[in-house]
Design goal:
ATP-binding, ATP binding, alpha/beta, globular, seven-stranded parallel beta sheet, seven-stranded antiparallel beta sheet
Amino acid sequence: MTEFAKVSGYIAEAEKLWATNQELVQSRQFYCLWEDACRPEPFVVPAAGLRLGRRQVLAPGAATGERVAHFTWHDDEHCAALVVEDDDETQLVLLRFVDGALQVTAQKPERHGDDDRSYGERVEVMSDVVAQVREQYPGVDLKHVQNAMILDALQSLRGRYPEDIIRSLEKSSARTRLALVGKVLADMAADESSPQLTFNLGVPATAEAAMATHAGPGAADVSIPPAEIPAGTTWAVGRRLVLLVETAKKLLAAEERFVMDFAGAENLSPAPAAGVCVLKLPVRSDATLPLREGSRLVVFPFGQPKAPVADFVVDILDSDELIGTLSWTDPSQTRPLDGQLCAGLRKSPQAFVTRSLQELQRLLAASEIPEQAVLRGVLGLSSVPYLFRPGPQLGTLDSWQSRAVGACLDPLHSVVLIQGPPGTGKTCVVEKMLRELCRQPQRVLITAPSNAALDNLCRRLLDMPLLRHGSSREAVQDDVADQCWHGDEAVQAAFAARNAATGCALHAGTPIGLLRSPSLAEEISRNGLFDVIVFDEAGMGGAAETLLCLCMARRALFFGDPQQLPPFPLPREIWSEFATAGRALTRDERAFIGGSFLGWLQEFRHFPTLLLRNSYRCQNPRLMRFASHLFYNAQVQAAPTAEYYQLGYKERLLRYPASTLRFVSTSQLPVARRREQVVTAGQPGIENRLEAEICAALVREYSGCYPLNEITVITPYRRQLRLLRKMLSAPPAGIAAAEWEQFVHQRISTVDSFQGGESDVVIISYVRSGGRSVGFVDDPNRVNVTHTRSRREMIVVGDAEFLAKKSRGRIFVRMLRAITRDGVVEELDEAALAALLGDSDDDGEKAAPAKAAAPAAPAASGGRQLTFGF
């Protein structure tokens, strides 16, 4: 029997029972009885579609693209449903019983995430509409703009935006269009939307009303109605956990069996250092490696895995080759690089995680998961109630932040999700919430996926009863370990005294650090589950470790942002094994086993999320619009307190002109001059010498206008970082060598290293140009992190045409549209390049010549002052 054919049993039993128990047939209970008995699995839909007898239930699909279908109970429609998914769309086929007969209703397919993406893009389109209207009608009061003007501007934008977006705006009501204009105006200073001399056009002030409705980021008037997150079905919950255990087993097996030999290795080192060489190894097109850039391997002779002779670090991993650095244990080593030399992965916590998940699976099968454990609601074994009650403004927190803290403190909420986009004060909210929990008092676990993130939070809590757990003190920053390391007797004594005085206790550790702590296991055994577990940077956490940690507490509070850096992706090998075994996976299941757990809770478990909407980092709203439109449904804006909004019109033009957002494009320069290079000397990697020269020149330019510690250069590639540091090794005239050295080592950074950082000026080098692809630089999460670090000015350096053409999706197309509208795109030719570089020395072997004195930075902001002629 095929998976789809199993539904015939559901239909037959329903028709049989209809006359005697109509209420049961139409109930969720009846569906669950069938599901538990028949255990329907997801399946691939045949190209011819699906039929029940003579009835066509699902139409034939397109010639390309695989469709996966699965059965579910639809709580909103109160009936069974067949869910059909492909890469782009989801379609619901509702299965109802009317007068004892099956009624099949196929709903219109919906694009994945269409509401969020299209709304953000509609606001983006309206931003261009507003710009067009301002240009064509210089004196118009935008709060009273006519719909005819909007429609004319939309027509002129055809070709720049997808046609379906333009058509949807043209077909929408006049009120909807004016409301979108109001959304755009809410991000502008009042005198930007209404000039001193305005024209009364005799139209309703709908845009003005909409602007008041969206009055900006300070008014937390978005209410969340009372709700209850329904439980899932037992079969669906169990299947997810089975898949997670299978995934963990596959990861463990991949680690244990993985052996890489050095047959075909090419030594790229022109003059190898003693005991160190750079190697390039071929990768078969059909190979799947459980590796990522930065993976560290143990090298050993064939058949002798317990006799290591070297270490190998993967520096570059492409589809057809990898490049890495081999370091011999004995520098005098002369062993040949061939198939008799092998490398395997270092030991990881994967075996522990796999065993723990198997135990969790056993507890679920035996119905032994404690009723009070928050895990039940998260997995879907029980429903989760929500009633967001308004609370008081808390100290210096804004209304969005106060609402988030209030929701976390409300014992009614067993699970709370707080999304904190960059610069919105998430860490301040976490600290405030933890201090309030301690006043209650409560026993609290705190975890984050990295030691660095955890230590940053611990530093804010060192005056509290806090213990920092982990397997190694060396992994914890000294200033944190000195005051709260759990293995220190003096720390334990201080913790006990504070605990006795306050009644509260905070225990912090990475997920593995908490799970493997004997003292925490003893604490739970003695005093029961912890009151609360707090997940910081939850967007970077996966399902396995998160679910295991949820077994330790009664409530769970998630703080993070799935739009920023995600967990490490599953190796391709794991997905290939599922496909080879014929396991069709739904989007829900793929996200559950391979994505951000916070993202899964939002999109598939449908937990309400409280969004922090005020960006206190960004003082210049033109810098925030691109990220807000693309990643946050146009809901995040510079805070009302941003300096931009506090300045008068003329001063704002001087302080924040369009040139504070720049894209310096190399597309018009010769390919040989602008292209990237793969470099093997030293640590291998990809660099772009021209972009490094431009960035170095920009650093010298801005160092005359901003303090060095407020200038940052960000690049996706470690090799580009090294080149930049080399080019900037000598300080410009007038800057002390020690100050310059500190800048070079602290303020030239990779994207991953600078997550959470901020700076007045951010210069971005995207590196990729002239190759076959843009690599990972078009990853939306990394782009978001990169473009949300700056407070006042941002300069993007790259081959704009190449990035837009070669990137997957339209992220660079949208970026260029945004910068063209809100900033300046500079296409460099040879003359402009020469003027920009001036006499700067590419290799940094001598100090740059003194430059003309720059205008003094305004005392209030440290911003660059530009002079315009009026």
